[in-house]
């Protein structure tokens, strides 16, 4: 709501160069005045699509110690929302689920947005399949909002998403009360963004960028 300043926990990847994961989330949220607690699941030199990349995983044990310290300082109890993005392993998914439940124990009204970062076309999954299945089993059922791309929406719903009608059906059956899906193929060389909630489904469109 207008003028509302929230404290938000963001759990995702961190790149030294680029604007994905936490490097995209933190400035966007802070531009609205929100207080961001950022927990990196992995630290990378840059987006993994580039020819060269260096990375180091942040273990769930380290993340849990960080969360415990944040909680001991009195900051976790005031959290209004949680966002999860790239989770590289089953153990990271389990940590994310426990963190959501810990925050909601202190604030039952806290909202949870799940960005199920699993893969994309044309390569498919870029996390282990068991990690993807764990996100589907454990995180989607407790999410207030899911934000998959078209590939992820199809994989998680086990439905085709090659047209708007198919994407709408997949979003309706995904589980979370609100679904925001991106990169959905649309007629006229366009891509659609879909928003589905209890009031219905709406689309916005952009033209594909030439290669």
Describe the structure.
With 211 residues, the protein is of the alpha/beta class. The protein is 32% helix and 29% strand. The protein contains 6 helices and 11 strands. The strands form 2 sheets. The chain has a 9-stranded mixed sheet with strand order 3-2-1-4-5-8-9-10-11. A two-stranded antiparallel sheet has the order 6-7. Strand 1, helix 1 and strand 2 form a beta-alpha-beta unit. Helix 2 (60-72) runs parallel beside helix 3 and helix 3 (90-106) packs parallel to helix 4. The radius of gyration is 17 Å and the shape is globular. The model has no long low-confidence stretch (mean pLDDT 94).
Give structural attributes.
nine-stranded mixed beta sheet, single chain, 211 residues, 6 helices
Q: Topology, please?
A:
Blueprint: E1 7-15, H1 22-30, E2 35-44, E3 55-57, H2 60-72, E4 81-84, H3 90-106, E5 111-114, E6 119-120, E7 124-125, H4 129-139, E8 145-146, H5 150-157, H6 164-172, E9 178-186, E10 190-197, E11 200-207
Parallel strand pairs: 1-2, 1-4, 4-5, 5-8, 8-9
Antiparallel strand pairs: 2-3, 6-7, 9-10, 10-11
Helix pairs in contact: 2-3, 3-4
Please provide a brief summary of the model.
This protein is α/β, with parallel strands linked by helices. It has helices spanning 22-30, 60-72, 90-106, 129-139, 150-157, 164-172, and strands at 7-15, 35-44, 55-57, 81-84, 111-114, 119-120, 124-125, 145-146, 178-186, 190-197, 200-207. The protein is globular.
């Amino acid at each position: 709501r207008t003028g509302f300043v929230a404290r938000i926990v963001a759990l995702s990847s961190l790149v030294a160069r680029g604007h994905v994961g936490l490097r995209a989330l933190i400035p966007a949220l802070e531009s609205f005045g929100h207080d961001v607690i950022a927990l990196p699941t992995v630290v990378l030199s840059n987006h993994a699509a580039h020819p060269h990349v260096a990375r180091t995983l942040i273990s769930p044990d380290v993340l849990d110690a960080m969360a415990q310290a944040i909680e001991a300082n009195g900051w976790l109890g005031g959290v209004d929302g949680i966002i999860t993005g790239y989770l590289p392993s089953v153990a990271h998914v389990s940590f994310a689920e426990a963190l959501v439940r810990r925050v909601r124990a202190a604030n039952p009204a806290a909202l949870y947005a799940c960005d199920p970062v699993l893969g994309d076309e044309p390569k498919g999954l870029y996390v282990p399949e068991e990690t993807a299945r764990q996100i589907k089993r454990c995180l989607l059922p407790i999410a207030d909002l899911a934000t998959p791309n078209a590939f992820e929406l199809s994989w998680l719903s086990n439905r085709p998403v090659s047209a708007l009608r198919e994407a709408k059906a997949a979003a309706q059956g995904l589980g979370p009360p609100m679904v925001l899906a991106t990169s959905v193929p649309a007629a006229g060389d366009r891509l659609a963004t879909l928003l589905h909630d209890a009031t219905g489904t709406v689309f916005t469109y952009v033209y594909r960028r030439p290669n």
